[in-house]
Amino acid sequence: MTEALENLERQIDELRAQVRRAATSGDPVRARELRADLRRMEQVWENALAALTAPVVDMGAPAQAGSILPAREQVHQALVLLAVPSAPKLVVSVHTAVFGGDLSSVKLTSLKRDEERSFRSSPHARPYYLCNALTYDRLVPARGLVAVSTWPLARRVVGPLSARVDFLRVGIALAHQVERMSTPTAPVLRLLWQYAANIPDAAPAFDAMQPAVVATAATAELSVHEDADLAHREEAAERARTQLDETHLLFGSSLKVVRRIATDS
Amino acid sequence: MDGIRGPAEPTKHNARTIAALTSNPGCARRRVLDAAGVDKKALAEHLGAPAPFGDSPFALARGNVFESIVKANGAAELIRLLREMLDLSLPEVAYHALDNVAGRESLDTRHRRSVQLLREAARSAEDSGTLFAHPLLRLDVGGRAVYLEPDLIAFQIAGRFHIVEIKSFPVIDRRAEPEKVAAAAIQSAVYVMAMRDFVASLGHDPEIVSHDVVLVCPRDFSNTPTAALIDVRKQLTTLRRQLDRLENLDSILGVLPPGLTLELRPDSTGARTRPVGELDEALKHLEPRYAPECLSVCEMSLRCREESQGRTEALGRSVQEQLGGIEFASEVLSLAAGTRPPSIHEEEAARMLRAAHRLRSQCLGETA
């Protein structure tokens, strides 16, 4: 295929040279004929090129969907749906499944750093910041979790029960999301199944999964842990408010750690 | 002991090397090297017989991926398995990750934090934590403290601690490779032992650490975890015996020439300057007992195999048993060919060997 194209290109070059010679030698009739030939030849070349590249163009088109928003907005969008501090991997898979797009977890890491830098240089300049979740015991950044600054502080603090509680909450959020969709897509259903499979009585099998049942089952288990978890979180949030400054409330402090461990020992 | 090792730092044991202690209890060489904390890998390399095994980066990556799947979302998958298998009650979901303490990963900090949390859990019957990921335990091996890191400890399943071991070898049609299960069992037994020592040091009954460990593996060809209970009582007994033996080496050490040392004398650049011949001589005082199984657990195995060349024991235990006390392969051959009359003890083996020899020459005829 490319060989044919190269052939065409050679012929086109030759034709161009002939057109130039005819035009400079003062033979307008011959030049016009040659020009028509040239245009025909170029059209053939265009068609051949289109045939060669067409499949790539087709595959490229859907990948561009959903990526109009900047990465920061996309992360925010996914986190608003999840409504709990989440791992970058989950943020990416939720965003890809529900909104479509080309978010990557690598981008997320640098994003959080940028947010902190931006907040430090001009605090509260943005309506929201992507920030850290804090651990309940030492109030330092919880490993591998992203949160939104507009959430109440208690939601951004994670205690020992929070992993399970947040897991159930995400399950409920995803179930509601599936309910809202007229035709749920396979990635969203698969994501929901990952949750339903690990919640008691949520769904017997992938095919028999009903979002309403999943939500009810998750809510039932949630009611077991919710109060204890909330107590942990609120107590820690209260402590954080008295101990930490604005920046550390959002992004956690690592300086604090050294001092606290030193006093521990 | 320190003399044998020389001025080098003693190598650190881990669950895997402690488990390996039980695989060839009769090997005096291994016992001395392990008790002295000699770096067997470096020693074998210096002798020109480097260990034929190591950690494959692919296996490690696979193991880590599977473990992170099992532990994702507060170990959601594991909670399901424990609920199905051990009737873990609904409120028991607290999850403590101990692989770092407030961003710090030093062994000491982690150990202190692990002790603190586990002590609380053992003391109060209340819900004070259920799952502890990567706690750092300490075990005394040959007089030295060794840090051990079980994948997970689950507590408050009927008031007992369970060790959870996550392995990435598959369970296909509810069957896993017996060798790998055995290795996992003995490794978990090391953790059970460390945990029991710890609980006992707090003044609790060591029996609250269950001898049933939970082994989590991928099911069939998927990433879906499945779990099984493994009773490690037998492994615990063997381990305990081996660790005690590690401390009682007087019978072996008594016959060693004084001043025996296996040090490699590294110079300031780390290059080993000890002459290989001298080291060879020193090593000969420590009698090995080579068996083909050594190849997969001991760094010295290639070297020992070389030494035991021509001996029947190098062919494995079953062959050795059948040959009943004949030590060298050349003797076996001469008995089979009938060129040497068997002694009273060798008669039975000789009869068998001659029959085998006859069959072989009949089958292969002239080509044999």
> Pairing-aware structural class of the strands and helices of chain A?
mainly alpha
CA radius of gyration of chain A is 30 Å
Integer average pLDDT of chain A: 82
Shape of chain A: elongated
Please work out how many helical segments of chain A DSSP would assign: 11
Counted up, domains of chain A total 2
Calculate the terminal CA-CA distance of chain A, rounded to whole Å: 74 Å
Largest β-sheet summary of chain A: 3 strands, mixed
Q: Helical proportion of chain A?
A: 55-70%
- Residue fraction in strands of chain A: 5-15%
Radius of gyration of chain B: 25 Å
Distance between the termini of chain B: 52 Å
For the sheet with most strands of chain B, the description reads:
6 strands, mixed
Shape of chain B: globular
* pLDDT < 50 stretches of chain A: 56-65, 255-265
What structural category characterises the helix and strand content of chain B? alpha/beta
Order of helices and strands of chain B: HHHHHEHEEEEEHEEHHHHHHH
* Neighbour order of strands in the largest sheet of chain B: 1-2-5-6-7-8
What is the average per-residue confidence, as pLDDT of chain B, rounded to a whole number?
A: 81
Placed side by side, the strands forming the largest sheet of chain A appear as 2-1-3
- The H/E string of chain A reads HHHHHEEHEHHHHH
